[in-house]
Design a protein that fits this description.
Layout: E1 10-15, H1 18-26, H2 28-38, E2 41-44, E3 48-53, H3 55-69, H4 74-77, E4 86-91, H5 92-96, H6 99-110, H7 115-124, E5 127-131, E6 134-139, H8 141-155, H9 160-181
Antiparallel strand pairs: 1-3, 2-3, 4-6, 5-6
Helix pairs in contact: 2-3, 7-8, 7-9, 8-9
């Protein structure tokens, strides 16, 4: 066992949905880009992605692959390799239970022609993925907080206008706090 703080090489296996694994396998450039950015090695087998590298590179690669598995495009998932970006997710099955409720809420979060999701991304600055039974977010901690607030309001049954107002108010507060902190 390596001593704490050493640069020992580790290995992690990340399981992602079959469709996402198929897409990853179909474009080898995605894995090469991940490896170059995270400074690690990655291999695909039938069921999982195996990443190997130093602790930081491996952790980052694992986060990126997991986000990719939750429906993000690789370019968006790679934002996690930049300092100050984080991943968050809401499991709709835990929050709602029935498939009918999940389907209805997913439709509310996406909106007609994707307008709701696009608006929440525009205001918060977070990237949002609605995939399977999850809604996932990538962005700064403030962006995640804002996008999650609007999403949770929609899950609880709030009107879109109310969910937007909640997100916009949080966005204003976060901007003011950042502005005040810079002085």
């Amino acid at each position: 066992m390596a001593a704490p703080g050493s640069d020992a090489i580790a290995m992690q296996q990340i399981y992602i949905p079959r469709e996402r694994m198929k897409a990853l396998r179909g474009d080898p450039r995605l894995l090469k880009e991940l490896c170059a950015l995270c400074g690690c090695k990655a291999e695909l087998d039938d069921e999982c992605v195996t990443v190997e590298g130093d602790a930081v590179g491996e952790f980052t690669a694992k986060s990126v692959v997991y986000a990719y598995g939750r429906g993000f495009e690789m370019a968006d998932a790679l934002r996690l390799a930049r300092e100050g970006n984080y991943f968050d997710s809401i499991d709709l099955e835990d929050a709602l239970g029935s498939e009918k409720s999940i389907s209805r809420i997913k439709a509310r979060i996406i909106g007609r022609k994707g307008k709701t999701k696009k608006y929440m991304e525009q205001v918060s600055g977070a990237k949002i993925s609605v995939y399977g039974n999850t809604v996932s977010f990538i962005g700064t901690s403030e962006a995640l907080q804002e996008a999650r607030a609007a999403t949770e309001a929609l899950i609880k049954g709030s009107m879109h206008k109310s969910a937007y107002a909640r997100m916009e108010a949080l966005h204003r507060r976060n901007k003011e706090a950042a502005h005040d902190a810079s002085f």
